[in-house]
Amino acid sequence: MLTHIRKIMSAGNGPQPASSNSGPALSIIVIVYDMPLQAERTLYSLTPEYQEGVSAGDYEVIVVENESANNLRREFIAQLPRNFSYHLRAEREPTPVHAINHGAGISRGRYLCIMIDGARMVTPGVVRNLLRGHRLHDQAVVTVPGYHIGDQLQQEAVNLGYGVEQDQALIESVCWPGNGYGLFDVACFSGSCAAGFFRPHSESNCISIPRDIWAALGGMDTRFNLRGGGLVNLDLYKRACEFDGAEHVVLLGEGTFHQFHGGVTTGGEARDVRAALIAEMTAQYERIRGEAYSAPGTSPVFLGELPWQVLRFVKDSAEPLIAERQPARDQGILASVAAQA
What we know:
The structure is a single chain. By secondary structure, this protein is α/β, with parallel strands linked by helices. It has one domain (2-312): Spore Coat Polysaccharide Biosynthesis Protein SpsA, Chain A, CATH 3.90.550. It is built from eleven helices and twelve strands. The strands form two sheets. It has an eight-stranded mixed β-sheet, with helices on both faces. Strands 5-11-7-8 form a four-stranded mixed β-sheet. The protein starts with a helix and ends with a helix. It comes from Mangrovimicrobium sediminis. GO terms for molecular function: transferase activity.
């Protein structure tokens, strides 16, 4: 069964070609701030050693760190693979927007993958399938669903004592990094993907965009200057997915996994403080865009292999839709029987 699903959903298993120029096809821009432990795991999950079916020549990883009291260790930076580059910035505003635009400006790939949060590990097929997604359509916007480590959203779990130690124990329990897809076993959908695979998502923390679309969008909007960038990642996701002619491709069998680190909206602060900040972010979005945020209603193409660990998320996503349609189906059957009586 799974083999059959894989064959249907795959777009070719060979390594993807590099871009027509001398650079890589894909540039992944990862933003880091005050999260060295979590960022080290994230960056390892992007290495050619961890990623399957690709080589260092297929992609580059641009690490942009906004300076803090807890920067990445020099020893770790020195050991990064040859397709990685590291850039430390002294940022004047509490937003990652400028760091992202800087990373995009120095990137070389035809496609730009934005990872606004350096605390999100990815599964081993992400790079290969991002490249596959772009092969499907020249205007493909390829996104990866998001998850939180733990059995509930971290902003809720933190109120029950969840923290870095519990997070690390769960990651170790699945023998990561040797078992990359084991992360699904100790995770739940993130808030932005809580409606499941088959309803609209509000953002992706691993979104890959053709360079011409990125240029047409003007990159990240620098008006989103609140701490953490406010709703800038949701804004990019919506504008990219709704771009005229864009084809939304979702990597069903891959994921980004948020590690607890006391982030702006995922824990580490009192509930009322977090609620006030989210309200401020929402208000800023409405001032900038002139309307409340709503998730883009795309009809995505689902691409990639389905590891068995993700099947429970497929089931949880499908069951509500089936339940909604069951009464209408039953009514149709009853009406047909009555007509034949």
